[in-house]
């Protein structure tokens, strides 16, 4: 018996137009008796419009790979990257001419509207605040009482990213560096995961739900623990081999409505 559906977004739930296909919307509408939790590296605003499309806006969400868990406007959990690490990562990004995006709650700061920022705007339908990195660092330093960054994202040339990734990995810090693509590195607090965030959310909001009755969908390295940790872990066809290795089920490619295919068959 499935009691709850949890899904990653990019590379899992969205179609080639970076939105929810008609088939996907129909499948979730058919499963309208089930809670649906979006669980992603995205910021909150980049998830709300998808909740609206799914008619699940009242549902909690897991943002920033688990660094921020929200139930409407209530924070169920929040942990951030401290300022010293923000500054060190930003300096490494500048040294290697990489785009550095900084995120906290509903805030997204970029140093300029370059190719990488434009790409993320297109992908997420969120507009960032544009200001030079020194101004952003000063802002984070002055507002440390609000916490640090929920996520840092570096984007740029893959060879430069190789060097920056190695250098950032040698910092004396408690950070998790995740290379989502050759040209992307996402940086989060070390202690977070989608699995732990989902478990906390279920405990707080759906205490009647058992983890063995949860179906979770994913495609990338940051989904591995979640897929392995639920009773019905589902890997889309384009998923990393590491995700497929721990999944209970394999379904179609995300561009061919893989999540919808599974829901149609099992719900």
UniProtKB/TrEMBL annotation:
Entries under InterPro entries matching the protein: Cof, HAD-like_sf, HAD-SF_hydro_IIB, HAD_sf
Single GO cellular component term: cytosol
What Pfam families has UniProt attached to this entry? Answer: Hydrolase_3
Q: Cite the GO molecular-function annotations of the record.
A: magnesium ion binding; phosphatase activity
Q: Which UniProt keywords apply?
A: Hydrolase
Q: What is this protein called?
A: HAD family hydrolase
Q: Key word Chloroplast present in the record?
A: no
Q: Give the matching SUPFAM superfamilies.
A: HAD-like
User: Does the keyword Hydrolase feature in the UniProt annotation?
Assistant: yes
């Amino acid at each position: 018996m499935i009691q709850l559906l949890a899904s990653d977004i990019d590379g899992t739930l969205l179609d080639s137009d970076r939105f929810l296909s008609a088939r996907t919307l129909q499948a979730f509408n058919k499963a309208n008796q089930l809670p649906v939790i979006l669980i992603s590296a995205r910021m909150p605003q980049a998830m709300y419009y998808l909740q609206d499309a799914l008619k699940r806006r009242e549902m909690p969400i897991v943002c920033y790979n688990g660094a921020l868990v929200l139930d409407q406007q209530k924070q169920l959990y929040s942990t951030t990257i401290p300022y010293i690490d923000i500054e060190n990562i930003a300096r490494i990004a500048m040294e290697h001419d990489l785009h550095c995006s900084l995120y906290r709650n509903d805030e997204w700061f970029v140093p300029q509207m370059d190719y990488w920022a434009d790409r993320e705007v297109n992908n997420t339908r969120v507009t960032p605040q544009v200001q030079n990195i020194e101004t952003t660092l000063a802002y984070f330093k002055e507002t440390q009482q609000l916490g640090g960054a929920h996520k840092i994202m570096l984007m740029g040339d893959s060879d430069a990213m190789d060097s920056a990734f190695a250098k950032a990995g040698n910092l004396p810090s408690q950070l998790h560096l995740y290379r989502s693509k050759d040209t992307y590195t996402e940086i989060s607090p070390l202690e977070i995961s989608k699995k732990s965030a989902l478990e906390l959310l279920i405990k707080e909001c759906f205490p009647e739900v058992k983890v063995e009755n949860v179906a979770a969908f994913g495609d990338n390295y940051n989904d591995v623990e979640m897929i392995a940790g639920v009773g019905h872990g589902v890997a889309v066809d384009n998923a990393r081999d590491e995700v497929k290795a721990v999944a209970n089920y394999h379904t179609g490619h995300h561009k061919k409505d893989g999540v919808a295919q599974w829901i149609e068959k099992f719900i």
